[in-house]
Amino acid sequence: MSMDQELVQEFVVEAQELLEQAQNDALALEGDPHNDALLASLFRAFHTLKGGAGFVEARSLVDWTHHLEDLLDKLRAQSLSVTPERIDVILRGSDVISDMLGALASGQMPEPGPETLGRRIQEAAREDSPPSVPEETADNPGTGRYRATRREKPDGDDGIFVERTDADSVIGDYIDEMFADGGASQADEASPQAGEHAGEDEITDAEFERYLDVLYEGTAPGMERPDPSNAGTAPHPPPPPPPAAKAESTHAPPPQSAGSGSTRVAGETTLRVEAARLDEVMNQVGELVLLRNRYNASVSALGVEDEQLTRIARELDLTVNDLQTSVMRLRMQPCSKLFQAMPRVVRDASRRLGKQVRLVITGEDVEIDKTVIDALSGPLTHLVRNSLDHGIETPEEREACGKPTEATLKLAAIHLGDRVRIEVSDDGRGLDAQAVARKAVEKGLLDAHEAARLSRQEMLDLIFRPGFSTKDQASELSGRGVGMDVVKETVRSLRGRLELHTEPGKGSTVAMEFPLSLAVLPVLYAKLRRDTYALPISAIDSLLDIEPQRMNRIRSRVLYRVSDQDVLPVIDLGEILQQRPLRLGAEPVEGILTQGGVLLFSEVLGNEDCVVKPLDFVGDQHWYQGASLSGQGRVILILDPQAMVRLANEQTTAG
User: For position 414, what pLDDT does the model report?
Assistant: First the structure.
């Protein structure tokens, strides 16, 4: 590419943001087809994309956006009606633009768009009814046609001369004089709307876009001019909207000079920074946290009460915490970035399945670490599609069950202290735990004897096993047994928790909880005889004093009665990690209650913030989240409680 790659990358970033907004506007427009503001915003997005593409000399992108712009121009002029079919081609056309932007980002010039879809866009742009022209009345005089040409002004400079042609007159003037500060021009005084814009500095969005189109004669910057011999076939700019519609539109702010103070301040309020640089800063803060921990441990080990050292340690602790919080906030992003693609997913899947679904999104302003946003996009899409395909019934089935024909699918982000909870819920048919277990036996994931020993929640958790699906035949959306296991693995890798709640006939909810930040991990230190391990505090529900009378053995499983309602398996870490079970009553034993079971340790020591370092030398199947340095400078292994529970269950099943 001959164009400066840095310029191209800046264009790609801004173009992707424009495209995301355009897709959201298109989806909103389908539900509100008479919203002129949405149409104007959608048209502006593609118009700006085309101009930028011409600047970076991406001819294929210019041509493709021009097709979409033609369609939107006719929709905006109300010569075409907004229909679901036209929204379809707009969305599919935007997908092609997304692929082209991806090619630009990788340093390649985009290829031309698919011819079949291009023809569909052109067919969708064919007029299905003549343009509606407002009748001339005393309250709504005719607006005529506008024509703009480049001409030399009396002072010798180039200018744009705009003419308005009525049935019996032609009125014209240079565009900068028509909207000059000194008041209305002769054209305004002669115009029937002279009273509306006299003395105003502003023009409407529609007028601005029309003049911009005329300025480039229908061609984006950087493209060749059209052949004058074909000028008669070029579409005329749409007539300006009637006064009533103009009154409802939002005026653009008056233009400011490049050196104005307000423009300069606005440009300095945001700064684009590569994510890799933020990661480097976060890693350095993590190292600082480790040094802080070692310093505090060294001060405590001195055994001398020195008020000066104690004050320095306390101030250092506060300063590092503040710095850590500030850097963490740099990586935080609103959940709206995670949810923004879901309306399109729901729309396409529900139309394909013939289901009526209303999507409700809450908590878009809740912030979470960028790593979670990036990693969760695919799993969340699968959960939504799974709910649409498996959970939500057809309108006929819902009506037979006494439910509204329109189902409700909810996406929610909830802030819970130092954690964020993301939920996907529907009011569909729900899950039958026994049916899930039977299907798992049919697929050979476990035998009938193993299934009989499972609790209801363990039966439901079978849907997260690789290869499991409740559908006999695969479809485009689901049924291949790939997806829910990926969801579980992704949540685990992000140090999150995954929960499934369902009620047959009423619906299901899949909830995922994640820490606000993944860079620094609060852990609980626990001793197993002479060895010290760490567990993420986020995975711990509470600490337990182990009472022998609450422990029961059923076949090969040891269960602990936490309460009258909760009975959980016991995971003896002495047996797993040291091949020597802890002897209850003969040596100290304490319990740590987690989501999947009760972990047995010798002693709980205390908590501390740590920085997780990956263990590259172990295989894929292990029960560690990583390693860290303690305040004493020792390497501490961080256990993965979910992996420990899974391993204990597998050993019990094998036994």
Answer: 93
Compute the distance between CA of residue 223 and CA of residue 58 in angstroms, rounded to an integer. Answer: 10
Q: What torsion, rounded to 10 degrees, do the Cα atoms 118, 345, 276, 420 define? A: 160
Please report which helix (H) or strand (E) contains residue 643, including its range.
helix 641-654
What's the rounded Cα separation, in Å, for the pair 55 and 559? 69
Q: How big is the chain, counted in residues? A: 655
The mean pLDDT of the chain is: 76
Strands, DSSP E only, in 417-491?
419-426
Please report the pLDDT score of residue 378 as a whole number. 87
For the stretch 472-525, pLDDT in tens is 555 556 544 456 888 888 888 888 888 899 999 899 999 998 887 777 788 899
Residue 122: C-alpha distances to residues 27, 82, 345 (Å): 20, 15, 25
Task: Give dist(CA 507, CA 404) in Å, integer.
Answer: 13
Q: What is the largest CA-CA distance in the chain?
A: 108
Cα distance between residue 455 and residue 453, in whole Å: 7
Structure tokens at 93: 């056309």
> Of the candidates 488, 86, 113, 520, which has an alpha carbon nearest to the alpha carbon of residue 291?
520
What is the distance between the alpha carbons of residues 577 and 594, in angstroms, rounded to a whole number?
A: 18
Q: What is the mean pLDDT of residues 293-315?
A: 82
Distance of alpha carbon 31 from alpha carbon 82, whole angstroms = 10
540: three-class secondary structure by DSSP: strand
| Percent of the chain clearing pLDDT 70 (strictly above) | 73
